[in-house]
């Protein structure tokens, strides 16, 4: 009979020991995964009335009210952090959309610059062609008698005449201008001085 009592006490001790190990393991497990407050509250509530185990958990974690107030304080702290993070995300999203808008503006301006560069390149090409044509005309008119050139110039506009005579031989130009209407020569001279 004494053996069976010792055996029963030994089994009870083993069961209590296993229960404590499982409880401690559970506390550690849930502590690692931030579920500590829920588990702690549950354990403290269930074990508060037990003589040895209850005292251990109350000493370790506090009373149910203390655990709940700690959990509420932690929850409030987490809510504040959540609000801060939401505000930061709001600012980040705002800045991101501003940056996107600026990027679109930059891309638009780059496109405009490319168009302007193409226009400038085309104008430059046209001017080079026009200059080459004027030089060819000047060379040609240098070979023609001044009286014939005067007849041709009487049918051209002043701007073209100015471009051509600037590329011609000076002596030949003097003879041509001498044969033209003095009023027209005065207009051409005035326009040349303004360029």
Automatic annotation (TrEMBL):
The gene is rny_1. InterPro entries: Mg_transptr_MgtE_intracell_dom, MgtE_N_sf. Pfam families: MgtE_N. The lineage of its organism: Bacteria, Bacillati, Bacillota, Clostridia, Koleobacterales. Residues 61-144 form a coiled coil. The chain crosses the membrane at residues 9-30. Keywords: Coiled coil, Hydrolase, Membrane, Transmembrane, Transmembrane helix. Residues 133-194 form the Magnesium transporter MgtE intracellular domain. Gene3D superfamilies: MgtE N-terminal domain-like. Its EC number is 3.1.-.-. This is Ribonuclease Y. It comes from the Bacteria. It is an enzyme of class 3 (hydrolase). GO terms for molecular function: hydrolase activity.
């Amino acid at each position: 009979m004494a053996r069976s009592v010792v055996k029963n006490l030994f089994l009870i001790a083993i069961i209590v020991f296993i229960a404590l190990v499982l409880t401690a393991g559970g506390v550690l497990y849930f502590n690692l995964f931030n579920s500590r407050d829920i588990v702690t509250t549950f354990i403290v509530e269930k074990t508060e009335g037990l003589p040895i185990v209850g005292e251990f958990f109350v000493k370790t974690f506090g009373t149910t009210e203390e655990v709940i107030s700690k959990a509420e304080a932690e929850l409030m702290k987490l809510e504040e952090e959540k609000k801060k993070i939401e505000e930061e995300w709001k600012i980040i999203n705002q800045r991101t959309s501003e940056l996107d808008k600026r990027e679109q503006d930059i891309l638009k301006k780059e496109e405009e610059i490319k168009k302007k560069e193409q226009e400038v390149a085309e104008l430059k090409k046209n001017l080079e062609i026009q200059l080459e044509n004027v030089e060819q005309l000047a060379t040609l008119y240098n070979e023609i008698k001044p009286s014939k050139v005067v007849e041709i110039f009487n049918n051209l506009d002043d701007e073209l005449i100015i471009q051509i005579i600037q590329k011609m031989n000076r002596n030949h130009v003097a003879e041509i201008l001498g044969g033209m209407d003095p009023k027209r020569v005065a207009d051409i001279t005035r326009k040349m001085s303004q360029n």
